[in-house]
Amino acid sequence: MTSPGTFEYVGPQWLEAVAAIVADLLGDDPGPLDYCVCEDLTSPPPGRANTPAGTLSWSIHFHTDGTVVGAGSPATADLRIVADYAVHHALSRQIWAGDPEIMAAAQQRRRSATAAGELRIEGDMSAAPDPIRRLIAQLHDPVAEITA
Q: Which superkingdom does the taxonomy of this entry point to (predicted)?
């Protein structure tokens, strides 16, 4: 059972809450943007896949005229994270709170998952527009707080 402030990972209410967090963090006028970030989670729990490939996927597409957070995996994404559901869910729920030890442990878990083939990143984050890089740097903890 989840508390009133948390939602099923990548469920409809979670996506709505993430959209609100993104809007709040991005601000009123991020400037001209066209960038897409996607997460494709492999081996999701039974009945949770939302793509023909069998992944549980979601994306944030930043447009000049607005930002869209939604379910599914777009054919093209500027940055795509492909990860095992259980591994990524555990990483996504960990609140860092700026604690260097917690952040270092999470970084080590990501490296281990990458080495084990359970996580890969396609695309170059350094090529993202500045507002997107700033947003992604701030997005983790607010999303972790709402993730059941």
A: Bacteria
